[in-house]
């Protein structure tokens, strides 16, 4: 038996579509009336857990799931002890630095030393500013980080951006991209080596599915 940790939210529909294409159907999670957090596929050879995006690496790292689908942003932030297996190619977004539209700063290196940067991606922000040798204070925020610059609490934010509409509506502009993010397939390293639940075959089927050209 194989267990897959699936993320709630924007990655769920494409994750289920991908798994269904390789014979694992967890479509019941898309039924809004369904409140189950653990379901089996029709063959009862595999099951899926529905968890928060941030929790997917935890379930895989601790062996409660052999496979998981998670955004690369979360993978970079949490740096879990899991195997990074496949770039699944959906869920495109980017980790960016943004400031108020009327800010004089138009690149990360123009930001003043020791200024405040608001973000829920504390590790990603810290690692980036350390890489450009700019000392800053990272202010952890887990709600609407856009309020940081708006209220004057921070000079900039580091946040995930998809369309940029939220930034635009709050009079913020991107000045730097740290990295691009897509959904990734991760695995429990020992389970992978032992091929629990024939997971290597599942992984290869997913890899072939991802590499197929779009018709």
Report on this model:
It is a single chain. With 215 residues, the protein is an alpha/beta fold. It folds into two domains: 2-91 and 182-211, D-Maltodextrin-Binding Protein, domain 2; 93-179, D-Maltodextrin-Binding Protein, domain 2, CATH 3.40.190. The protein has eight helices and eleven strands. It is elongated and about 60 Å long. The mean pLDDT is 94.
Any descriptors?
215 residues, alpha/beta, D-Maltodextrin-Binding Protein, domain 2, 2 domains, six-stranded mixed beta sheet, 8 helices
Chain-wise SSE layout:
Elements: E1 2-7, H1 12-21, E2 38-40, E3 46-51, H2 56-61, E4 67-71, H3 72-78, E5 83-87, E6 93-100, E7 116-119, H4 122-131, E8 137-140, H5 147-151, E9 156-161, H6 165-169, E10 172-181, E11 183-187, H7 189-194, H8 199-211
Parallel strand pairs: 1-3, 1-4, 7-8, 7-9
Antiparallel strand pairs: 2-3, 4-11, 5-11, 6-9, 6-10
